[in-house]
Structure to design on (172 residues):
């Protein structure tokens, strides 16, 4: 007769694999920005699917990609009337600082920290993409900025524009 209270008879519970899945709900309407965001999502997914012991090289590449991703948006903001200090750029800087600090923690033996950062980024990114980034994409369109060539159809269109907020509904 089976003893149902014996823990030894219970099957092992598998740890669910971590993942990040792209959703078209994240599209901002700016093709170049969306390409960069697809890459971000892909790299995050690969990172989360990798065992902690092998994550560091991928994480370093992910940080480098994020530096370029944020610099691209910051550059577009400056080119279209945002002030250098605005809340969208501030948020980029804060996220990057946190991402960079993770490297030291990992090297000191906190090897689960990349997964924790990855999960936090997965949660943060959705909000950021549909809020600040989508707002920026809308702003670029409204002033006639082509993100593929990084040129303005009519530079006079932003002569009197000075944006210190985010230019989006989530933070203005
Ligand atoms: Fe972005
Ligand atoms: Fe952004």
């Amino acid at each position: 007769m089976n003893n149902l209270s014996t823990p030894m008879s219970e099957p092992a519970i598998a740890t669910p694999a971590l993942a990040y899945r792209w959703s078209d709900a994240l599209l901002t309407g700016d093709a170049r920005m969306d390409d960069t965001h697809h890459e971000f999502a892909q790299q995050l997914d690969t990172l989360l699917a990798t065992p902690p012991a092998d994550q560091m090289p991928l994480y370093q590449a992910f940080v480098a990609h994020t530096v370029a991703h944020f610099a691209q948006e910051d550059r577009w903001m400056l080119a279209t009337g945002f002030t250098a200090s605005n809340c969208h750029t501030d948020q980029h800087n804060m996220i990057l600082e946190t991402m960079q600090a993770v490297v030291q923690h990992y090297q000191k033996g906190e090897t689960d920290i990349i997964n924790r950062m990855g999960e936090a980024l997965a949660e943060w990114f959705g909000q950021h993409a549909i809020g600040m980034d989508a707002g920026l994409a809308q702003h670029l369109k409204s002033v006639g900025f082509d993100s593929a060539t990084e040129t303005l159809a009519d530079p006079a269109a932003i002569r009197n524009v000075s944006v210190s907020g985010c230019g989006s509904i989530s933070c203005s």
Confidence is low (pLDDT under 50) at residues 1-6, 168-172.
